[in-house]
Specification:
The chain is an alpha+beta fold. It contains four helices and seven strands, in the order βαββαβββααβ. It has helices at 27-40, 73-80, 139-152, 163-177, and strands spanning 5-6, 45-47, 57-61, 83-105, 108-126, 132-138, 187-188. The longest helix has 15 residues, at 163-177.
């Protein structure tokens, strides 16, 4: 089932997510719905807060990035089958050079801005079967993980922009929260006027 994606301005996007147990109700169904929602919106990642659930859960399928001609063969191969579920994730460390990439977010449609992130990330998490993993990722895989991880910490990519950049996009952000955008997927706007 395709769920509405929560838009910028909704308080759930600023909440730190709570850990969940293995017995979380209808987890398999929730994951299926999240993947369907993400694919419908042409996203490569989706965090539970983006569908209104303040829990520590996010999904990634970065395989669309593997088609990028600018990637090395190694990076393209890493991304080709990079489809994962991250439950109760904790970033252990972020290392390497910081590099910029124009990020976007399904909760913040029509805005892309350069965000600096570390090249490597070491993360501990549980998969959909509650098997624990500790892994290191680099490049675009690390970036997508860091972006989605920020969501379960109540952080948006716009929080990482300079104060000048924030001022420049302030009006666009206000319009998003009021529903004055036309994304090609279902959204829920916190400040949209009813009956429009």
């Amino acid at each position: 089932m395709i769920l509405p994606i929560v838009a910028y301005g909704d308080p759930v996007l600023k909440k730190k997510g709570k850990e969940i147990e293995k017995e979380y109700p209808k987890l398999a169904e929730l994951l299926e719905n999240m993947f369907e929602t993400m694919y419908n919106a042409h996203g490569v990642g989706l965090a539970a807060p983006q569908i209104g659930l303040p829990i520590r859960l996010f999904i990634i399928d970065a395989s669309p990035f593997s088609e990028d001609e600018e990637l090395s063969e190694e990076e393209a191969n890493q991304l080709k089958d990079f489809k994962k579920v991250f439950i109760n994730a904790t970033i252990i460390e972020e290392t390497g050079e910081e590099w910029a990439f124009a990020e976007g977010c399904l909760s913040i449609p029509e805005i892309r801005e350069d965000v600096f992130r570390n090249e490597f990330v070491k993360i501990k998490y549980f998969d959909e079967n509650f098997v624990e993993h500790t892994e290191v990722y680099n490049g675009l895989a690390a970036r997508v993980i860091q972006h989605e991880y920020d969501h379960i910490e109540g952080i948006l990519f716009t929080d990482k922009l300079s104060s000048l950049k924030k001022r420049l996009i302030k009006g666009k952000l206000a319009n998003i929260s009021k529903g004055k955008v036309k994304p090609e997927y279902r959204m829920r706007f916190p400040l949209a006027k009813k009956g429009r």
